[in-house]
Amino acid sequence: WDQSEPDWERDGNGTLGTFVCVARNSLGTARRRLQLRLADRPDAPRELRVSGATPTSLSISWSPGFDGGLAQTFLVSARALGAPPSPVTLLAPGPALTLGGLLPATPYDVTVRARNARGDSAAVGIRGVTS
């Protein structure tokens, strides 16, 4: 550790550290600053959209956020307006899913969360209407 370099502290949530690696030999000194982000919960999905609708289905897609450094899946649920929350949450391995068995001409609130081994992201939502 080179004492002339500043002592870089972690950020407030403890997941990001900046380190300085110093190598010296008879040919000189080399310094490299590195950032390390430890595995954490994933970021929420982005750009959630309804990509298709039929009388009994909604196709949704989204862009994954940062995966937290671990493999992630997505939890998707849909609730018809005015109905109790759906007890079913579907697991999607990738950023798209078609929800079937829905009521025709009905608005649904759809939520998506990312999940990895460290936990779940915040939920994002969109309203879709079956045709």
Task: Please provide a written account of the structure.
This protein has 131 residues and is mainly beta. The protein has two domains: 1-38, no CATH class; 46-129, Immunoglobulins (Immunoglobulin-like, Sandwich), CATH 2.60.40. 0% of the residues lie in helices and 53% in strands. It has no helices and ten strands. It has strands spanning 16-25, 28-37, 46-54, 57-63, 73-80, 90-92, 96-99, 107-116, 119-120, 124-129. Strands 5, 6, 8, 9 and 10 form a five-stranded antiparallel beta sheet that branches. It has a three-stranded antiparallel beta sheet with strand order 3-4-7, with no helix packed on it. A two-stranded antiparallel sheet has the order 1-2. Strand 3 and strand 4 (57-63) form a beta hairpin. It is rod-shaped. The termini are far apart.
From the spread of the alpha carbons, the general shape counts as rod-shaped
CATH class of the largest domain: Mainly Beta
- Profile the largest sheet: 5 strands, antiparallel
Count of folded domains? 2
Number of strands: 10
H-E string: EEEEEEEEEE
**Terminal-residue CA separation:** 65 Å
DSSP helical segment count: 0
**CATH fold category name of the largest domain:** Immunoglobulin-like
Structural class: mainly beta
Tell me which CATH architecture of the largest domain applies here: Sandwich
Beta-strand proportion: over 45%
Report the C-alpha radius of gyration, rounded.
22 Å
The CATH homologous superfamily of the largest domain is named Immunoglobulins
How much helicity do the residues have? under 10%
Low-confidence stretches: 1-15
Organism: Todus mexicanus
Domain Fibronectin type-III: 44-131
Protein name: NPHN protein
Pfam families: fn3 (PF00041)
